[in-house]
């Protein structure tokens, strides 16, 4: 072949164009670049999450002045104190009640929103999502003003329909309910929007098939909608459980733990003990009490996510 | 004959009633839907509405207990002017802007690079890291604010907005990385191969192909980072006690409440002004906002 | 433009699975070669190794004489058209085609000249400002080809480029691709699972199966002289009939004994070739188009009459396909649509024994 001579010279001339950059080194370089690109993320996770988490455990084993190691002393003291037992109870009560209400209301609203003509859905969604958009600390200020003992606009409405005034933040049980009301108000839109997305992902043919099989509307909901949404419902509930359980803003603005420290949740109590009262180790210990519950919830969320991605694959 | 005539006529009214009831059922369902939505909208919008009403009132009108508090009789913008001309309030605002701009920029750089690397390039341990990103997303800020308080204190950054810029990425980076991984992973593999053959290197592939193609995801993540760092409350409450370093959230909550005679009108005006930027962003970019909100669950 | 040499190339995945088991192939300059085979036969892997998208586990690939094993895709001077086109969705058609040139720092005027030239060849001049989303499937296909043409590379690689198009458009784009190749004459390697595409486009067809090359040759050669049972069955549609048979001597002739006591004579010129298989089990192969009705004044030599009873009759318009079961073996024949055929009624057919094939069932190779 006459071409051989020319191509033989063209060949070696081509290889040294990138001397030594073999495909293997190309691949190795690629994973080095990939690692470098992820390095800032690794730094954030290691430096601002993993390290503080370890540091929190260390802190919680120190005495108040952080001069000596007292083992589980802080935890023992906390579990002996009636206030803290109340905090545990109150946190769980608050989180569970609020999440259940948010989940039910969110589902109801998503369902209703899904059933009106598509044209109108955007505007309704836009209006109903507003509480989620306003920074919670600021909207809670508005609620605080509505709950004000002497000027309460909510009591004005109650009086107008002939009901007696309510001591919203003055009496422990009403204060607890008030905190839940605000949290449900702020969190329901999140559930609604998640469920709406899930509802939209259920193909219409399934409902048509169910209707032809003789399912009533309720049965369609029970046997088609809920099973199809099971995963997203559980992920949303679990995720919201974490966020609600760890909530701080609402309690801080609305009651600041009062009356008589009866409405504290973990976060606000940890703040009270750790930052305001200056007992950092004890505060760290309070926060760490959230950890087991969060770990359990995280486990279920992760399992749900994995299942979801497996089903989708 | 009568039997044959009777059976179809018996069947037809039956069918007719069913059709009628189906239509009626639909109408009832629609009515229920609209009633629920109207009630929900009233409840959802009442607090912001009442805040707005209060912010337009004079202190005299607020303390006047006769008549309904839900309307304003002599609207005034005095509360707003008072805040806008107050250098302390303006300081809160600029602190919030400075913090948010820095945090959004840092977040987007970190998470876009990391997501590209995790979604496309893979390296030793990248699978573990992706799970780690999701786990850190589940860690709430109130779990770690005490050790971070110590760490930031040791760095001498308490009472400084830079301390906040340092710790806010814990709130934003995991979620933004997570949704960017989802967006990048949905880009077909052939697109990178085409770019590779076209002669792009990794950096060009990211900036020329991935970022433009995943632009909706970038916008959603940016909105999320913006909203979160604007609304952050736990960290500034814990780390900042000096008014001149406070961002808006804690500034409004702690500094506008003075003594027992609350300036309610000004307080509400302050809260509304502070809430305005996220609401404006939301009004214009609602679809991206919703996409970002649901992406974490639907893309995961 | 250049020739491509594939020498003993192996692709082994982690876990020892071999997708390509040491293939050799020389592709000449300007040649249009089609790799064809069922899914999983290694054809796409081979193409991706040529492109540099997959690492080569063994052997070497040379483009234009230079071994490219260790050269990244961007430096191989190749262009590729993907099955899903892989157009950059955020760029206009113009930018899609210009992107590769831009990255290679061509000057603006040269880019414009090349893009416009390619647009003219492909007749997409009026689409240059559109985004891919606003294009039809056929138009996207053209843009993907345009992106390859503007680069003026040594080799074009096509990875099943037509399989996302509907049947009608596929035929049209097939012609288009052939026309483009005749214009630009760039060496082309084309992967498809569709044997008709392979036959119509290729200068040479490479039939692959289970990671090895079964046969290489021009389309007509593959059709008339397949080397293996696999090639015989893969090329041609409907597929060749394979009937278990026995080869026997009888009254000075060599006969093929089929099930149901059907006996067909081997044509005289092939007797010596098959003689050594006398008395053995073989596979008798004949294409449906060589099993027809008996035509008046038919001058084909070596026609052998046989009577068969169809069980299914499929009229196709220009011909009728009849399906016959011979003791568990399905065979089909193509007959004139004017012949009245119905299930259960015997038909007088003729086998064109000049076109017959015999396969050794031990080796699955042609005798």
From TrEMBL, chain A:
Coiled coil: none annotated. It is a multi-pass membrane protein. Residues 88-301 form the ABC transmembrane type-1 domain. SUPFAM superfamilies: MetI-like (SSF161098). It comes from the Bacteria. Gene3D superfamilies: MetI-like. The keyword Transmembrane helix applies. It is found in: Cell membrane. The chain crosses the membrane at residues 33-58, 87-111, 123-146, 173-197, 232-251, 284-302. PANTHER family: BLR7065 PROTEIN (PTHR43005), SPERMIDINE_PUTRESCINE TRANSPORT SYSTEM PERMEASE PROTEIN (PTHR43005:SF1). Belongs to the binding-protein-dependent transport system permease family. This is ABC transporter permease.
Automatic annotation (TrEMBL), chain B:
The keyword Cell membrane applies. Residues 93-285 form the ABC transmembrane type-1 domain. It is found in: Cell membrane. It is a multi-pass membrane protein. The keyword NADP does not apply. The chain crosses the membrane at residues 28-50, 92-116, 128-149, 161-185, 206-233, 263-285. PROSITE patterns: ABC_TM1 (PS50928). It comes from the Bacteria. InterPro entries: BP-dep_ABC_trans_perm, MetI-like, MetI-like_sf. Keywords: Cell membrane, Membrane, Transmembrane, Transmembrane helix, Transport. Belongs to the binding-protein-dependent transport system permease family. This is ABC transporter permease. It comes from Paracraurococcus ruber.
From TrEMBL, chain C:
The keyword Transport applies. GO terms for molecular function: ATP binding. Signal peptide: none annotated. Keywords: ATP-binding, Nucleotide-binding, Transport. Residues 4-235 form the ABC transporter domain. CDD domains: ABC_MalK_N. Transmembrane segments: none annotated. It comes from the Bacteria. It comes from Paracraurococcus ruber. Belongs to the ABC transporter superfamily. The lineage of its organism: Bacteria, Pseudomonadati, Pseudomonadota, Alphaproteobacteria, Acetobacterales. Pfam families: ABC_tran, OB_MalK. The keyword Ribonucleoprotein does not apply. PANTHER family: MALTODEXTRIN IMPORT ATP-BINDING PROTEIN MSMX, OSMOPROTECTIVE COMPOUNDS UPTAKE ATP-BINDING PROTEIN GGTA. This is Sugar ABC transporter ATP-binding protein.
């Amino acid at each position: 072949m006459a071409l051989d001579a020319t191509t033989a010279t063209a060949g070696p001339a081509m290889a040294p164009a990138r001397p030594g950059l073999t495909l293997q080194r190309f691949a190795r370089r690629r994973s080095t670049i990939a690692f470098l690109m992820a390095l800032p993320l690794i730094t954030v996770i290691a430096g601002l999450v993993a390290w503080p988490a370890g540091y929190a455990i260390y802190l919680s084993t120190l005495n108040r002045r952080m001069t000596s190691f007292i083992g589980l002393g802080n935890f023992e003291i906390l579990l002996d104190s009636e206030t803290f037992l109340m905090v545990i109870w109150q946190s769980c009560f608050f989180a569970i009640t609020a999440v259940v209400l948010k989940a039910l209301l969110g589902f109801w609203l998503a369902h209703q929103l899904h059933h009106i003509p598509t044209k109108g859905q955007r505007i309704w969604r836009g209006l109903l999502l507003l509480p989620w958009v306003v920074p919670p600390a600021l909207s809670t200020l508005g609620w605080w003003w509505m709950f004000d003992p002497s000027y309460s606009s909510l009591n004005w409405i109650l009086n107008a329909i002939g009901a007696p005034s309510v001591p919203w933040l003055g009496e422990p049980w009403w204060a607890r309910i008030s905190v839940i009301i605000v949290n449900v108000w702020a969190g329901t839109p999140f559930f609604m929007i998640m469920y709406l997305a899930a509802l939209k992902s259920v193909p219409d043919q399934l409902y048509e098939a169910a209707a032809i099989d003789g399912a009533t509307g309720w049965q369609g909901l029970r046997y088609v909608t809920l099973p199809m949404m099971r995963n997203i419902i559980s992920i949303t509930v679990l995720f919201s459980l974490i966020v609600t359980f760890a909530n701080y803003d609402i309690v801080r603005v609305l009651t600041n733990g009062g009356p008589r420290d009866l409405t504290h949740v973990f976060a606000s109590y940890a703040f009270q003990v750790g930052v305001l009262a200056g007992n950092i180790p004890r505060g760290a210990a309070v926060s760490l009490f959230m950890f087991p519950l969060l770990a359990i919830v995280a486990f279920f969320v992760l399992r749900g996510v994995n299942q979801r991605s497996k089903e989708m694959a | 004959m009568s039997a044959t005539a009777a059976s179809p006529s018996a069947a037809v009214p039956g069918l007719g009633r069913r059709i009628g009831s189906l239509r009626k059922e639909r109408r009832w369902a629609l009515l229920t839907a609209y009633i629920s939505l109207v009630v929900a909208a009233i409840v959802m919008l009442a607090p912001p509405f009442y805040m707005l009403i209060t912010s337009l009132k004079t202190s005299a009108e607020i303390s006047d207990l006769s008549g309904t508090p839900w309307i304003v009789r002599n609207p005034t913008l005095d509360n707003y002017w008072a805040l806008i001309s107050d250098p302390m309030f303006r300081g809160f605002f600029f602190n919030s802007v400075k913090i948010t701009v820095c945090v959004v920029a840092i977040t987007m750089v970190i998470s876009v690079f990391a997501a590209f690397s995790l979604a496309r390039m893979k390296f030793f341990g990248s699978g573990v890291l992706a799970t780690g990103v999701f786990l850190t997303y589940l860690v709430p800020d109130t779990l770690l604010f005490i050790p971070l308080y110590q760490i930031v204190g040791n760095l001498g950054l308490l009472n400084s907005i830079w301390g906040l810029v340092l710790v806010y990425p814990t709130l934003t980076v995991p979620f933004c990385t997570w949704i960017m991984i989802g967006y990048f992973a949905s880009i077909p593999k052939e697109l990178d191969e085409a770019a590779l053959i076209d002669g792009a290197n990794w950096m060009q592939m990211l900036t020329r192909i991935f970022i433009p193609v995943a632009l909706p995801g970038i916008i959603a993540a940016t909105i999320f980072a913006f909203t979160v760092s604007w609304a952050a409350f736990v960290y500034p409450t814990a780390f900042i006690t000096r008014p001149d370093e406070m961002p808006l959230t804690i500034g409004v909550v702690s500094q506008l409440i003075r003594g027992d005679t609350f300036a309610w009108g000004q307080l509400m005006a302050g809260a509304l002004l502070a809430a305005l930027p996220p609401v404006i962003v939301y009004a214009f970019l609602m679809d991206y906002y919703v996409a970002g909100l649901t992406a974490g669950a639907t893309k995961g | 433009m250049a020739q491509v040499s594939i020498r003993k190339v192996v692709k082994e995945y982690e876990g020892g699975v071999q997708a390509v088991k040491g293939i050799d192939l020389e592709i000449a300059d300007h040649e249009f070669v089609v790799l064809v085979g069922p899914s999983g036969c290694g054809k796409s892997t081979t193409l991706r190794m040529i492109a540099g998208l997959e690492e080569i586990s063994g052997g070497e690939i040379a483009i234009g004489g230079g071994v490219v094993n260790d050269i990244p895709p961007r430096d191989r001077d190749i262009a590729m058209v993907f099955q899903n086109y892989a157009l950059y969705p955020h760029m206009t058609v113009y930018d899609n085609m210009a992107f590769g040139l831009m990255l290679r720092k061509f000057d603006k005027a040269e880019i414009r000249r090349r893009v416009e030239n390619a647009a003219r060849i492909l007749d997409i001049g009026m689409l240059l400002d559109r985004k891919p989303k606003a294009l039809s499937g056929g138009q996207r296909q053209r843009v993907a080809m345009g992106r390859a043409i503007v680069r003026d590379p040594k080799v074009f690689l096509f990875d099943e480029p037509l399989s996302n198009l509907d049947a009608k458009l596929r035929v049209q784009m097939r012609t288009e691709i052939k026309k483009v190749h005749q214009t630009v004459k760039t060496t082309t390697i084309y992967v498809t699972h569709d044997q008709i595409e392979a036959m119509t486009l290729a200068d040479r067809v490479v039939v692959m199966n289970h990671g090895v090359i079964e046969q290489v040759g021009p389309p007509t050669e593959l059709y008339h002289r397949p080397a293996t049972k696999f090639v015989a069955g893969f090329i041609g549609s409907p597929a060749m009939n394979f009937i278990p048979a026995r080869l026997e001597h009888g009254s000075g002739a060599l006969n093929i004994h089929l099930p149901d006591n059907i006996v067909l004579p081997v044509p005289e010129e092939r007797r010596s070739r098959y003689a050594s298989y006398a008395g053995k089990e073989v596979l008798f192969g004949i294409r449906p188009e060589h099993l027809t009705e008996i035509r008046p004044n038919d001058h084909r030599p070596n026609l052998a009459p046989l009577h068969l009873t169809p069980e299914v009759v499929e009229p196709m318009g220009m011909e009728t396909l009849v399906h016959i079961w011979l003791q568990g073996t399905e065979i089909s024949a193509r007959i004139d649509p004017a012949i009245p055929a119905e299930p259960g009624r015997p038909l007088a057919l003729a086998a064109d024994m000049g076109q017959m094939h015999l396969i050794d069932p031990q080796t699955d190779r042609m005798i």
